[in-house]
Specification:
The structure is a homodimer of 198-residue chains. With 198 residues, chain A is α/β, with parallel strands linked by helices. Chain A has one domain: Rossmann fold, CATH 3.40.50. Chain A is built from seven helices and six strands. Chain A has a six-stranded parallel sheet. In chain A, strand 2, helix 3 and strand 3 form a beta-alpha-beta unit. In chain A, helix 2 packs parallel to helix 3. Chain A is globular and about 55 Å long. In chain A, 43% of the residues are buried. The mean pLDDT of chain A is 88. At the A-B interface, helix 1, helix 2, helix 3 and strand 6 of A face helix 1, helix 2, helix 3 and strand 6 of B. Chains A, B: InterPro entries: CblAdoTrfase_CobA, P-loop_NTPase. Chains A, B: This is Cob(I)yrinic acid a,c-diamide adenosyltransferase.
């Protein structure tokens, strides 16, 4: 059941209002389902607040998350909430004009754009989907990510999803949920199905 | 990273197609964030498939999930995907005309409607938000819930969220994710904030 009360009051010199509006970093990690799905659920709340939302999909397949993408794009276009910008590594990123050689290069190009957008305060919520992988694989330096996030201007919330989120990132983040797989239909031979997996 | 291949092929006499379209029961439980948020993310995929979605909020507060509710209602009204029906215990349920005496009675009235809708195949995805609680508290008989779900007609997917989901329900479900709290801003004295918690 929802609990609105903090368990401790910190001695950080901030007023409740300042603390309430603190920009947050979320990490959704673990082997279970729901890491990205929960991030897109958060995007619904952001949309409802009228916030500009930026999604960066750090996955190879351009077809992945088609349901979430279409729903959020349609919402963004209604004009009844925030805007939604959706960027896909699987399509080579829209801002990159040349051929990208490798997934590693693609991931770095994505991160460079995230840095530019954070500096420009382009969005109020960033969904960095599957961004834990390029850090885990050493393609992107976790320490640099933490440094950039720590120094980001304004009130910009960032959600990072993916298995194996680096421990330093988890230590830095404000909220970390480990989606733990208890049981999955694929363990029982069930294949992914439309409307459920995508 | 997404994996589309099952780890074993079951000896259940079903074709891949039959197995693929099997109606599923999901349970999102645990103490971490993201249980309901991930369920509403699933609703985005269902909407994109044109499925009718029924949400039953088994929570007292009618104000809870306002962001998700508005986003899904707006999506449902676009006519570009499935329909969305949103039912709130916190407002006494629309189909109940008399005063409801207690939360326990309200929870039971909700479950009675879910049973009627399952029998009528009203929706293709049911989000039974925070429904684990009335089972955990003994207000609704878990064995009956399992029996009704086991015998539901057609292809109706059901997501049940909430802490302390009964073990029998987890044993019965096709997919169980435990959202494990690693770290939460409220532990550090952060209060809930608009756009993030609601």
């Amino acid at each position: 059941m929802p609990q609105g009360q903090p368990t401790v009051v910190p001695n950080d010199g901030l007023t409740t209002r300042q603390r309430r509006n603190r920009p947050l970093v979320f990490v959704h990690t673990g082997t279970g389902k729901g890491k990205s799905t929960a991030a897109f659920g958060l995007a619904l709340r952001a949309w409802n607040q009228g916030w500009p939302v930026g999604v960066f999909q750090f996955v190879k397949s351009a077809k992945w998350r088609v349901g979430e993408e279409r729903a959020l794009r349609v919402l963004g276009e209604t004009g009844e909430g925030g805007t939604v910008a959706w960027h896909k590594m699987g399509e080579g990123w829209s801002w990159v004009q040349r051929d990208i050689e490798s997934s590693e290069e693609a991931a770095r190009e994505g991160w460079e754009q995230v840095k530019r957008d954070l500096a420009a305060e382009s969005y109020k919520l960033y969904v960095l989907d599957e961004f834990a992988y390029p850090m885990h694989w050493g393609w992107i330096d976790t320490a640099e990510v933490i440094e950039v996030l720590r120094n980001r201007p304004g009130t910009q919330h960032v959600v990072i999803t993916g298995r194996n989120a680096p421990q330093e990132l988890q230590d830095f983040a404000d909220l970390v949920t480990d989606m733990t797989k208890v049981k999955h239909p694929m363990d029982a031979g069930q294949k992914g199905q439309r409307g459920i997996e995508w």
